[in-house]
Design goal:
The protein is mainly β and about 375 residues long. It has two helices and 27 strands. Keywords: Signal.
């Protein structure tokens, strides 16, 4: 599949020159759509010829759009689901996504932008301003969506084509050309009148990541490969032999301090946990507070001793608990003089896989 997709992308790059600046409509009856892993029918609904997508994702086979405008009409029922649009789609497991939650009509999380890395959505890591927004829906009627993509930013319009619903100030995936896909998100969803306009890509610098430790913010971690989370169940003490089985890479967080661990997963690795490690050098023996957030399970070790375990997965606390990440928990670290090793063993469920942390201050400590 991926080899075929690369071939399609090569064709699209040659064809993009001719489409640049022109608006192209792609009827859902066109053979440009890959419908291989989806169930769909063509019909007329509400005066529009459309596709009724009952399962799966369909995408345009011969398109490479990096910057430009995507528009489509969408209609969905009043049930729990996540219908939406994929753009800058590299493959079925890596793309940018905008989708709706019909069951949350009018609520703050009714709509959502999130990146998809290695088949992992990140909505628990990306929420609030610039990511999700309240909007009411009308059901079994047509809504119009427009996504204006430029560089590392995008404006997403919903019905009102003058004022964007969501201004994405930083798309989380690096800007690369990709195709467009649509999916019903578990609902029988209709799409009509899909069109796109390709524009010359805009070059924008990524938002700067603060220096590690600036105002206590942790922006650099040692990250392990995927491991089996069961290895840490009831493990109150880490041994040298156990620690020697792990390998590490140095990874930066996003500017916010969040590190999305899904970026560093391996497609064929079934491990459901990763370790984010921090080395703290303390000039004296002291107690230092650290605030942190995680998605969705965590065990924290300080100097090989377990000091905390928690779970923040979806619905784990009440029927509306989303498990979104933030600096919601605080630990008091008993640091010894010299080198201290802090581990966050982070397990996944769905909706995000990451961690963030911030020390109360940097007095008499340094990080490495």
């Amino acid at each position: 599949m991926k080899k075929m997709y690369l071939l399609f992308m090569g064709i699209a790059i040659m064809g993009s020159f001719y489409a640049n600046g022109q608006t192209v409509t792609v009827p859902f009856t066109s053979d440009r759509w890959d419908k291989e892993k989806a169930k769909s029918t063509i019909e007329t609904f509400g005066g529009k010829e459309c596709i009724l997508l009952t399962s799966g994702t369909i995408f345009i086979k011969d398109l490479a759009l990096q910057d430009g405008i995507i528009e489509t009409d969408i209609s969905f029922p009043q049930h729990r689901g996540f219908p939406g649009i994929a753009f800058r789609m590299a493959d079925r497991e890596n793309y940018e996504s905008f989708y709706m939650r019909p069951h949350q009509s009018g609520n703050p999380d009714a709509t959502q932008y999130t990146p998809i890395f290695n088949n992992q959505a990140g909505w628990q890591l990306y929420h609030g301003e610039g990511y999700s927004k309240a909007t009411p829906f009308t059901f079994e009627q047509w809504h119009h969506i427009k996504i204006d993509i430029h560089g590392r930013q995008a404006e997403i319009y919903f019905d009102d084509m003058e004022k964007p619903l969501i201004k994405v100030t930083e798309l989380k995936r690096d800007p690369k050309a990709g195709t467009i896909g649509v999916n019903g998100g578990g609902l029988s969803t209709r799409f009509a009148n899909l069109q796109y306009t390709i524009r010359q890509p805009v070059t924008q610098a990524a938002m700067p990541v603060p220096a590690n430790g600036a105002d206590g913010l942790i922006t650099k971690w040692q990250v392990s490969k995927q491991v089996n989370g069961h290895l840490f169940e009831s493990k109150k003490q880490l041994t040298s032999d156990f620690k020697s089985t792990l390998t590490w890479t140095t990874q930066n967080s996003e500017p916010s301090g969040t590190i999305n661990l899904s970026k560093f997963t391996q497609p064929k690795d079934s491990g459901n946990a990763m370790v984010a490690k921090l080395i703290i050098e303390s000039e004296v023996e002291q107690v230092k507070a650290i605030s942190f957030g995680f998605s969705e399970y965590v065990v924290v070790y300080l100097n090989d001793k377990a000091i905390y375990a928690g779970r923040d997965n979806f619905l784990s606390r009440d029927y509306r608990f989303l498990g979104t990440i933030g600096y919601f928990d605080t630990l008091l670290l008993s640091l010894k003089k010299g080198t201290n090793e802090l581990w966050f063993v982070v397990g996944k469920d769905f909706g995000g896989w990451g961690v963030k942390a911030k020390l109360e201050d940097m007095k008499q400590i340094s990080l490495r």
